[in-house]
Design brief:
It is a single chain. By secondary structure, the chain is α+β, with helices and mostly antiparallel strands. Among the domains are: 3-64, no CATH class; 71-224, Band 7 domain (Tetrahydropterin Synthase, Chain A, 2-Layer Sandwich); 345-372 and 387-426, no CATH class. Helices cover 64% and strands 14% of the residues. The protein is built from 9 helices and 8 strands. It has helices at 3-27, 110-119, 125-146, 149-153, 174-181, 186-201, 217-344, 346-370, 383-414; strands spanning 28-31, 35-40, 46-50, 53-56, 63-68, 72-81, 95-106, 204-216. The strands form 3 sheets. A 3-stranded antiparallel β-sheet has the order 3-2-5, covered by helices on one side. Helix 3 (125-146) crosses helix 6 (186-201) and helix 7 packs across helix 9 (383-414). The longest helix is centred in the middle third of the chain and has 128 residues, at 217-344.
Length: 426
Amino acid sequence: MNFNTLIFIAVALLVVVVVIPILVGSFLRNVQAGTIRMVSWLRGTTVIYRGPGKSLEVPLLTTGTTLSSKAINVDLDITDQTADIDDLGVPRPIKVRVLASAIVSVGDSDQLIKTAANRFFSKPEDDQMAILNDLLSSAGRRAINLLTHDQLFSAKTAPIRLPSVQLQSVDPTLPAIQAAEDDDDPLAIIIRKACSKELTDLGLIFNSLNIKVVQSEVADARRRQSAAEASANADIVATQQGRRAREAQLEAERVISDKSRELAQTQASNAALIAQAEALKQDALGTQRSSELRATQLAQAEADAVRVRIEATAAADADAIRVLKMADANAQSIRQVNEAIMAGGEAYLRYRQIEMLPQLVPEIARALAQAKLITVSDGAGGGAAGQATGQITDVVKMMMALQSVQGAAVSGGADSGTAGPEVPQR
């Protein structure tokens, strides 16, 4: 391989790597997103390329222009008077201020794009914004002049008087505008309809209109009135809610009081029933105790009666036995006395007289002291004194016999088995 061959290879590589990309780049240009590329050929044919993509251009044979397809935001500050009239038909306009934001963009059709390139984008950027501002502001002022104050602040219910705008050609954006009219307010609808033709003449379309603020002294007064009414209504609602809460609280307290009273009455009734049951229980216990006491008393009385009968029978039997014993003892004593008297004779009597002297002497002396004796004696028996003495002896014997009998009876009552008094032996 010689030097010429190497040069040829290097040139070929240079052509492939450098020259061909440059040539292709000069024929195929990038179309960025948000831009539109218009390529006009030598014979007047225009081809439109929408980004992102590539556009075919031939140097010296074509002319290319780049347009922005981005939405253009225009801030509007419109001040004008409304079309209000009084009851007599006299105009009473109200000054209002509308702050809005409009969004426009290049049309979608090739015709609108060509029109925008020639009539709108051919001007400087400041002139573009001034044109849009003047166009939209004038349409807004005309719309304000057509609407009343109430229509501006009641977009959904106020009747709309639309301007008579005759379009010379069919607007391709009419379906979209018609679909958006149902959800827009009258001011936006009128502005859109009023400036659609002018925007179409510039190759632009109306995307949306956002009414930010509608200001007026009447609206401010009404707003303050509405705020005051809202505050008053809120106070009324709060008062009513407080009253309802208080009524509910009182009702709850009343129900609680009723339930408490019913509970107290129930407790009192239960206590009365318990007391009554306790009283009945005590009465039953008292009746039971009385019955038991009566039964006990009856049993005790029967037992006492039986005991009394037994004791009476025993006492009667004992008395009978005692009487029999005493009779036997008396008889035995009498027999023993008689036997003693018969056995002892005069000696026993004298012994008993000696024992009874301490008792007999005072009695005899008392009797002799009171006696009035007359001695009539025949000479036998010692006279009156001897008879008195003999009578005294008889009395002593009788008393001794009685004492012996009484002593035997007493000894027999104390001990029925004992014998009579022992007769002293001489």
